[in-house]
Every structure is written in C-alpha cells, then in structure tokens.
Here is the input.
Amino acid sequence: MSKNYVDEIIEMLNDKYSNQPEFIQAATEVLDSLRPVIEENEDIYRRDALLERLVEPDRQITFRVPWIDRNGNAHVNTGYRVQFNNSIGPYKGGLRLHPSVNISIIKFLGFEQIFKNSLTGLPIGGAKGGSDFDPKGKTDREIMSFCKNFMLELYKYIGQDTDVPAGDIGTGAREIGYMFGAYKRIRRTHEGVLTGKGLAYGGSLARTEATGYGLLYLTEEMLRCNGFNVAGKTAVVSGSGNVAIYAMEKAQQLGIKVLTCSDSNGWVYDPEGIDVAAVKEIKEKNRARLTEYKKYRPGSEYHEGRGVWKIKADIALPCATQNELHIDDAKQLVANGCIAVAEGANMPTTADAVKYLQENGVLLAPAKAANAGGVATSALEMSQNSERLNWTFEEVDAKLKDIMVNIFHNMSDAAKKYGMEKNYVAGANIAGFEKVLAAMMEQGVC
Ligand code: NDP
Ligand code: 2IT
Here is the structure.
C-alpha cells in the first residue's frame, strides 16, 4: 500500500528541516489534524502538490541590519521576513524582536499565521518576520537606529496590498512608529503598510487591547458553550507584555480574579488579584522588571524563574512565548482542577502537554483561534486606512467580539463535523485550512 500523503509530507519535513524544531512542531500538529480533510480527495491534492506548496513559504528573506549604539559603535543583526502564503489576501503578520529569533521560529509563526488569519474571516494571508536584535536595555535612540535600518531593507518587500507587518514580542507602538517613519520617507507614500500604528497617523482604536480582549471573548464563549460562567472564576496568566496586560484587564472586567503574571526573569503571585494598572506602569511606561511589583502591592509574592502554573486556578492563559507550558505543568493544572487553557501566546503549550490536557478533559483553545483578535483588528485597521476613516473604540471592539465568537463556533463546528467534538485544536486547524484550500485549488498550481 502506498504511503499516506500526510505522513509522506511530515517525513519529508523531518528529513529536510531537522534543524527547524519549532517549524516541524507547528507543521506536524496542523498536518495531523488535516488528515480527514486530505483523505477526502487525496489523489487530486497529491497530483497538485497541495501540501508541498502549503509547507514551503512563497519566499523567505533574510538581510543584514547594521545599527549604531549610544557610544557610536556599530552592530549587526539578522533581519527576517517569511512570506508564507497569500492565497486569501496580502501577507500579514507581526515582527518579533528577540535574541532567540531564527528561521525556525519565524517559519513556525508564519505557518501558524496562515490558518489564524483565515479563521478571522478577513482577507489576509500569512507571514512573519523580525530579528535577533534584543531591545532590552536599549535607549530610544538605539531602538530608532535599529528600526530605521531594519526598514531600509524591509521596505523593498512590503506594501499596503503586498505585505503588511505589525507588532509581536519586542515590537510595540514605539518600534512601529520608527519603522513607519522610515518607510514613509523612503517610499514617499503615507499608506497602511504597517498595523499597530499610533492613533495620530492611521492606527486603530482598540488594536492595543485587541489580542488580550479577544482572548477573553473567545474564552468566555467557550466556557459558556460548555456550561460554565466566567464570572467568579480564577485565572493564572503568564507574561506581562501587550497580550498578557489586556488579557488580565478584560478578565477582571468579566469578573475573573487573575492571580499571577510573569516576565522572562520571574513571576508574581497576588492573592488579592493582579493590579493591572501597576503592571502597565512597570512594563509599558517604565520598561522595568516585575521585581518592582511588590512596591505597589506589599501583600504579593515575587519568585525568580518560572512557576505560574503551580498556582491553583480555573483558567490558564499562557501569554508569553512558545513552549512555555510543559507536560509537568499540564499535570499540575489538571491536578489543580483547571477547566480551560486558552493560548494568548503562539504555540505556548508543548505537544505532549496539549495531548495530556485534552485527554484529561481540559478545554483547550489553541493560539490560532484564541489570539486571532490581534491580527483581526489589524485587518480592521487596514480597512479604516483604505477608506481613510477612523471607527470608534466601541465599533472596533464590537466587531472584534463578533469575530472571536464566530471563530469559536467555526472551530467547534469543524471539530464536530469530523467526529472530534471539543477537540478545538483540530477544529481550528481544519476550519482555518478550508478557505486556504479552496483558494489554492481555485488558483491552480502556483
Ligand atoms: P511583548 O513583548 O509585549 O511581551 C512578551 C512577554 O512575554 C513579556 O512579559 C516577556 O518578558 C515574556 N517573554 C518573552 N519571551 C520570553 C521567553 N523566552 N521566556 C519567558 N518569558 C518571555 O509581546 P506580546 O505580548 O505582544 O506577545 C506575547 C505572545 O503573544 C507571543 O507569543 C506573540 O507571538 C503572541 N501574540 C502577540 C500578538 C500581538 O498582537 N502582540 C498577537 C497574537 C499573538 P520580558 O518582559 O522579560 O521580555
Ligand atoms: O501573532 C500575531 O498574530 C501577531 N503578532 C499579530 C499580527 C498582526 O499582523 O497584527
């Protein structure tokens, strides 16, 4: 018997990209979920090399980024943009600035972005980029020097109808502003080439809040449809950046008590509920460490290292980075009676931890669905830029909520349709893939 098409592709990826573990992890999870869809028409998809075309980016660009530090010394980092798939719309996805960035990480993020963007229901393709530049401890001028030089190369490959980058880890409003300024200067066009822009020059209200708020809108709907009410529940959160802060804010608005948050050095446990205003001041304003939190809340605890998943709570919201929730953490969550994990970060849960959580009845909302509110609102920013109008916060927030509720139902229905009820991981992969599949098949081999 000839080998199954999906197995063949997974094997090919393992041979060809054995040095790209994060990409293989992301691609294997998606391909595995797509089996029932692929099997419906395997011969045609194989003939058209559908999966080979899906797992190989349209193009991947790497470039040198020189920049000057405060002492006048030059440094060089590597810049990346992986344009993965534009079958349903212009490439869209964030830029990550973190020393751990490499091609495996950018490819995993770009690959995930294809399905996430499709799930939003909006016309955006998948891409990701960034650099191994470390923004921590840098002055504003150093950040500016890096961002201007980064755009001096990136501008060649992007445009409002071609590829529209945005923020991610280490890239927030400040970095987007410096990059936008450079793009506008080089291209002489003031266009919506980036999202997450400042409100003074084309940004959208609610984009800052969108990923975190969206995560909670989806979590609320998932719990409601499974017979739970979010009000009165407790949550453990990891991270204290853009996603974590607005996830905590919306969680509290919905009546959830948030007990923890973290950064890359340590974590905070506040039995009274995290003071989000304090975290905003520490992280957004002072760009400082969570060790400062105790000054605001003497009754809280600060611990070095990782540990948020040890604290007993109903809901876990990983909002920091990939592979931050391991099998031992999953066991601890289950032992503590956790009912739901909703992923704010991209691929925060390791594959064995996902399996364990699902086997033990924990509702798991995968990143592609749960954190899609950020990119969805980016697409709403693109729409506002195109019509040269600004919508109110309430209008954007209402659209975001609708999108997140729809995503939940689409992934839930897709899981049900293929006999995997409540397997939202498979449901999100299938629901995201269906539109990409149709677009790729209708456009022919390209
Ligand atoms: P930020 O840079 O604003 O915050 C990242 C947070 O995670 C910080 O608290 C940071 O700690 C912590 N963190 C980052 N890397 C590590 C690491 N290797 N180990 C431990 N902690 C780490 O990024 P965002 O909040 O924007 O992004 C967080 C996650 O959400 C990422 O996975 C991102 O891809 C995803 N995401 C972001 C979206 C957005 O709109 N911004 C949209 C969808 C997903 P420290 O302060 O010490 O660096
Ligand atoms: O992972 C993500 O979806 C993002 N970092 C947001 C991408 C975007 O284009 O808004």
Remarks:
- The radius of gyration is 21 Å.
- The longest strand covers residues 74-85.
